[in-house]
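Exam revision sheet. Question 4 asks you to relate a sequence to its structure. Input first:
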Amino acid sequence: MNVVVELAGFLTALHWALPLALFALPLALLPLFAARRGGEPTSAQAPQLLHPDLHGLLQQPRPIRRPRLAPWLRVLALAAFVVALAQPLRLGAWIASAPEGRDIVVLLDTSLTMSLRDLQWNGKPVSRLAVAQRVFARFAAKRTGDRFALIAFGSHAASLLPPTFDVRMAGQMAGLLSVGQLGNDTALGDAIALALRQVRPQRGLHPILILYSDGGVSNTGSISPADAVALARHQGVKIYAVEVGPSADTGTPYTVPAYAGQQPDMRLIAQATGGRFYFATSPGAQEAAVRDIGALNPRLHPPPTRRAIQPLYVWPLLVGAALWLLAAFADGRLWRWRLRP
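Answer key, structure tokens:
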């Protein structure tokens, strides 16, 4: 009973890549017709000498010569070849589709205060920028499917890496940054505006910005932080701010001579755009912050559309070859070929 159930399950899971090839199965009967024609006498038209006493025997119907075993073996072999041509296959489990990611732009502060070595990594003092670089590299390595871009900013903002799916390259490029590379001031507004030019809206996957800084006020640049935040809100881009300085921003606007009006600090930037603010005084806190950002912005996992396929054509192909060789043995052709001088 179990064998019958397993056979029924196997036939249910059986599919054909070229089912139209099964219409060629009647051609497998050709060896039978060839064997019948080959059994008829070939000297029917040759002159014959008939004895009068054999006249009665000649009037009797000619006995039909039945085909031998070899033609039937060839029929089965050709049928197996046709089945192999139809390419039987068995469908397996569904294959998970690749996750669909979003655009993530990381803004790394390279101003002079990011050189302070007030953090530790594996028991050794390291700079604030070094911790941010390593935490980001770990975060990017786990987000296959997202497009990462890198913006570095100091006195100027520069695009270090355009949007790419190469998460390993994103981590390596972040490690190339050094403090003071773009000046000692902070052009936060320019950095946000430049990051907004790197993203593209996607259906159901809104781009995000992750801002790493030590909380220094923006004191230079051609675009004020207030204008850049207003542009981010207009585009629907959330900004997640991770502060690595000695004290957290209080959410109090500040003013500087470079811009007219009050400017938002990191906490207000995150709140105004719908993001979150994180104050991370240790590498563990920074990693917890990026994990939370990743959980709040998951990748889409579309339903699977493909299934694993196990081709089975090799088995009827082998059976057909074995039957054809067996038919040759039964017909004696292989023996005659071996004995031929």
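Marking note for examiners. Residues 314-331 form the longest helix (18 residues).
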